[in-house]
Amino acid sequence: MPALRVSVLCLLAIATTSAFAQQQLEFKWPNNAKIAVSLGYDDSLASHLDTAVKDLNDFKLKGTFYLTLSHPSIANRIDEWRDVAKQGHELANHSLFHPCSATPKGREWVSEANNLDTKTIAAMAQEIQLANHYLHAIDGNNQRTFTAPCGDQFTKNGNYLPAIANLFEGMKTHIGPSPKNIASLNRMDLPTWAPHQVDGKTLIDYVKSAEKTGTIASFTFHGIGADHLAVSQKAHRELLAYLSEHSDKYYVDTYLNISLYLKRAQQQP
């Protein structure tokens, strides 16, 4: 009987490995690209409208702008944000008020009213859904993606992300390295990198490193040449130039389009 049990376990292991290998073999990014690249920009910053959009357009690349709807740029420059969507970039959800946990060291800036630690799952779901309504009023779209503010997920009564997952086609949920392989890539739980004060070579090296995985190199930028947690415009443009020059290797698109591509691939028998 022990020998039989070992044999069965071995067969299961072989079958699992075979299925994984088949999945790896069959999946292909558009135009046989090695990986997808998602260029995300958080917090509705002025430097996104002043600099990042122009840079992307110069290199004919598409980005995803994760808007915090309470930011002054939404009310003051709403027509410009509407134009960003018309140019083929994604306007995505980054909440109304950017609630974060006040617990980690250095989070003194988190206000009492905006402390995720004291909010409930229901309150967060309501806020995120309302943000989607505001976004629809700007761009008229019904499909979009989400990035969790600060990468924080837990309210006082649990993780709020499962309660909002049905609102989105994809979610960037935490800081971390690219998924190791296609089998472990979850469009609803994507790790991302938030670079700041790095040069163009470091940004490019991140993409090159992700090539080994065959999955996604996800960027979460904040300021571009200005604003908080900034990357210089020079570094930003060096990355975009590299991606543009190697378009045969990299599928660069909005995270919405990347997510929809993955969704269709996963639905195939």
TrEMBL record:
Pfam families registered for this protein in UniProt: Polysacc_deac_1
Keyword ATP-binding: no
Coiled-coil spans in chain: none
InterPro entries, sorted: Glyco_hydro/deAcase_b/a-brl (IPR011330), NODB_dom (IPR002509)
NodB homology domain segment(s): 33-153
Signal peptide segment: 1-21
Record keyword Protease present: no
Keywords on record: Signal
Biological process per Gene Ontology, one example term: carbohydrate metabolic process
One Gene Ontology MF term: hydrolase activity, acting on carbon-nitrogen (but not peptide) bonds
UniProt name for this protein: Peptidoglycan/xylan/chitin deacetylase, PgdA/CDA1 family
Natural source organism: Thalassotalea agarivorans (Thalassomonas agarivorans)
Lineage: Bacteria, Pseudomonadati, Pseudomonadota, Gammaproteobacteria, Alteromonadales
